[in-house]
Design brief:
Order of helices and strands: HHHHHHEHHEEEEHEE
Shape: globular
CATH architecture of the largest domain: Orthogonal Bundle
Helix content: 40-55%
Radius of gyration: 20 Å
Structural class: alpha/beta
Strand order of the largest sheet: 5-4-3-7-6
Largest sheet: 5 strands, mixed
CATH topology of the largest domain: DNA polymerase, domain 1
Number of domains: 3
Number of strands: 7
Length: about 270
């Protein structure tokens, strides 16, 4: 039955869960939800076990819906609905969708314009990865166009699943190409061989912090949100933890304002690349 979740699906990869969820939706709903759900899957990793995902990771994903985007709330709702579905079927203990909070747009349109003109600071590795992805995506264009041509050969467009799938893939591909193009045009690649402000944390630095509530230590590489991919040990300077420790010194205690509540961490060490 469509929408049923088997034991294998519940304990399987995120990509399998997404396919089961999308198959359970009505065609009109699936058409709008599919691009956003699959984007979330790619960000987290197709083989990622959703049961192991943490609240702060979902909160970090909210950076993909900047307030300057007019339909940010609707796009985020597609991912929230998927995460709620997963909770209702016992995949996760809680509804991770409640942690996906989109910032409200500023009343001043000039703020959005200013943001678009600001440089995006990237590490050398992050910049190279985006360039590689950009070229790879452009090479996929002819393949998707060929898929569209084959699907359109079937004149019955009313029930043409291959055509719908090809159109969705093309839409997501072009959106990602556009995003990367904008990022690369505004990119400033950081040179850590140049002057570095002492022990103050900067983008590209590896920062070890201690949670003063639990005593647990974790290490992250500080990056711009455009470089973040879940599970790679990187954290955006726009995320709650990244924002708190960015441009602070080793030994400082800082306050983290997270969706789950406020807590304090101490910066144990800062290592430049």
């Amino acid at each position: 039955m469509v929408g049923e979740v088997t034991t294998d699906t519940v304990h399987g990869a995120l990509q399998g869960l997404a396919r089961t969820y999308l198959a359970s939706l009505k065609p009109a709903v699936r058409e709008s939800a599919q691009p956003e759900v699959l984007k979330f899957v790619r960000w987290a990793g197709p083989e990622r076990d959703l049961a192991t995902m943490l609240a702060h990771e979902v909160a970090q994903y909210a950076e993909n819906f900047p307030p300057s985007v007019s339909d940010a709330g609707k796009r985020a709702d597609c991912v929230r609905a998927f995460l709620k579905w997963a909770k209702e079927r016992g995949v996760t203990n809680g509804n991770l969708g409640t942690h996906l909070r989109v910032r409200k747009a500023s009343k001043s349109s000039s703020n959005a314009q200013t943001m678009e003109e600001q440089p995006i600071y990237l590490t050398k590795d992050g910049h190279e990865a985006l360039v590689t992805e950009f070229e790879s995506l452009k090479q996929r264009r002819p393949l998707i166009q060929a898929d569209l041509a084959r699907a359109m050969a079937d004149k019955d467009f009313r029930e043409n699943a291959p055509l719908d799938a090809a159109r969705n893939e093309q839409g997501h591909l072009e959106a990602r190409i556009k995003d990367i193009d904008v990022t690369l045009r505004r990119a400033v690649v950081l040179d850590h061989g140049a002057e570095h402000p002492g022990d103050v944390s900067q983008i590209g630095d590896f920062v070890t912090i201690k949670d003063l509530r639990t005593g647990q230590e974790k290490g992250y590489t500080l990056v711009n949100s455009d470089e973040v991919r879940s599970g790679q040990g990187k954290i955006s300077i726009a995320s709650p933890v990244g924002k708190a420790v960015y441009q602070h010194r080793a030994g400082e205690e800082v306050e983290v304002e997270a969706p789950s509540g406020t807590f304090r961490v101490r910066i144990e060490s800062i290592k430049s690349p």
